[in-house]
Amino acid sequence: MGAKTRNLIRIKFKVLLCILFLIYFSDETSAQKLTDTIRIQEVQVFGKRKIEEAGSMVTHIDTLALQLMKTQTISELLSSYSPVFMKSYGRGSTATASFRGTAPSHTQVFWNGMKLNSPMRGDVDFSLFPVYFIDDISLFHGGSSLQSGSGALGGSVLINNKPDWTDRFSVRYVQTLESFSTAKEYLNVGFGNGRIQLKTRLFSDQSKNDFPYFNYGVLPMHESVQKNAGYAKLGALQELYCRLAKHTLSAKLWAYQSDRDLPQLMSFEGDVRKETQNDWNVRAVGSWKYLTEKSKLELLVGLNRNQLNYFRSSSEANFVNFDSRSKEKSYTANLNFDWKPQEKLSLDWSLNSGYHQVSVFDRAQKIGYDHDRLEFSLLNAVHFQPDPKWLFSFLFRTDLYDSKLIGFIPSFGAEYLVDKKQDVALKLNVSRNYHQPSLNDLYWFPGGNSSLKPEDGSSGDLAISYSKRSDKVILSGQITGFASLIDNWIVWQPSSSGASYWEANNLRKVFARGAEVQLSVHSQFSHNLTFDMKGNYSHSATSNIDAVPSVDESRGKQLIYIPKDKANLFAEADYKKYYLKLNAPFTGKRYTSSNNVESDYEKVLNPYWLLDMSVGRQIDFKPFVMDVVANIENLTNSDYMAILWRPMPGRYYSLTIQISYKK
Q1: End-to-end alpha carbon distance in the chain
Q2: Is residue 83 within 8 Å of residue 399, measured between CB atoms?
Q3: Count helices and strands in the chain by DSSP H and E runs
Q4: Averaged pLDDT score across all residues of the chain
Q5: Which residue stretches of the chain have pLDDT < 70?
């Protein structure tokens, strides 16, 4: 994307904002009817337990976190507020998610009911999802993910957009200036009434990304500056909602473009080369819901089109190494029926279908493939409450893909209320799941393997949750133990024939086990002073137990790039219209070789803590509200690597100003 185009879009942001403001000031009569906008604290509502989530291990990211991270990506949100490990290749670069020590392709992602995983790679790049574009996000761990779909051996991420039926006219504009020549802009415009709502969101994020770092990868070691790491991202989201009597219609269109320069590794000492990645995404989803007192019928159709261009050339004679074009088209159609004949019984049926087309061609290598996939999934589920203390849930799926039938994929959940007064509950979930190979696993040339079997996993979860309320304090927490055994784990490794390429094979039986701890505290010291703290910790041991010890030294060892320990802690103090927020994520040691050897030649990635701080104030300019926030990222200036030989920035700063108006 050229600089002229980016500047034009930035100008349009500002012009549109000015026009909207002028519209308001030209209407004095409307201005007299405006009510004051005030900042309120998050309210936690405790009601009846949902029988649909009986035994489910679910993490709901609350609106407090979404507001704080509104100028960040979902990869940064999950890294800071969940036990999920994010494998990031650097600031602005590709980031994938790993639940409970599983692979990135074992994480399924749904946007308003439509699956977004790449049929080509099997994973999702979370760095391409701005938090500003979402209203709700939930994580379903382990077997709890089967409610949304199969394939999530680790877990699933559900992203949703929601209408605000009270919105008559609203504008919110956000601008962030950040270190390393980074500028971000966001605009949200909504209007409507109790029957129709229309919302438009726009964003721009661009950076030179030229941060300083210390280069350990070459001799002599020295201070350096990140080069060829700039990026420019643009996006738009259009939403339309309509409700008439028992019918609700919605349509959403998401368009996105990302242009990224890819920096060389610290350890690279050759000639300068050009390496870029360009992504284009267009997603559309439409739904119709028919609601009655005891049932809900929903039809959903969706389209997801992606294109990824990768280019690399060396400076010597401008030789082109790679020039690939990858195109994906996915079509989705889902039919869901929920019936609740009585308060303590709920029945669910759904039929999901998807058709995927992938075309890959490298113009420099003269290789590629064209393949498609048709898949169906049928869900049957029953949730019931036999007495006030017990909740049960049983569901199973039947899947068909590439003419292969997976006949029985079950999940059973149970929940027992130990102490109603203290709200102490025990949860249990056992399930079977499977994950189909991606089209790259099957058909990539060279190295793809069309004989691959689907990965087959069994998992179990046991948790105890606790919640206590008083006039000034709300305390809640949960401790979960989990284990899963996955057969036919798909790995890419050097070719057994001795060729120079890697190939995909079903080699491993992997055993993943561990524990998750979540804690939340809300304190109301006075009318003007509140305090919130949230923390979570996860321990995941993921090892290959099927290797022959005398031949494969990876037997019983932690899988590469998966930390055993991950934690984060968030705290916020609010006094009147001032607030202070601290966020401290921790990532444990990660191995970069399958035998877990530590030496000068077999590097490990050391554990690290990060500390981020935000200080802000809300200012009322009736009828507008302004938020001014100063942020310091990596306050302690920690030196760390998330991926071997990929540098990460030290301490850096940002200033965010948000102006909002709502009628």
Answers
A1: 37
A2: no
A3: 5, 36
A4: 89
A5: 1-49, 547-554, 599-602
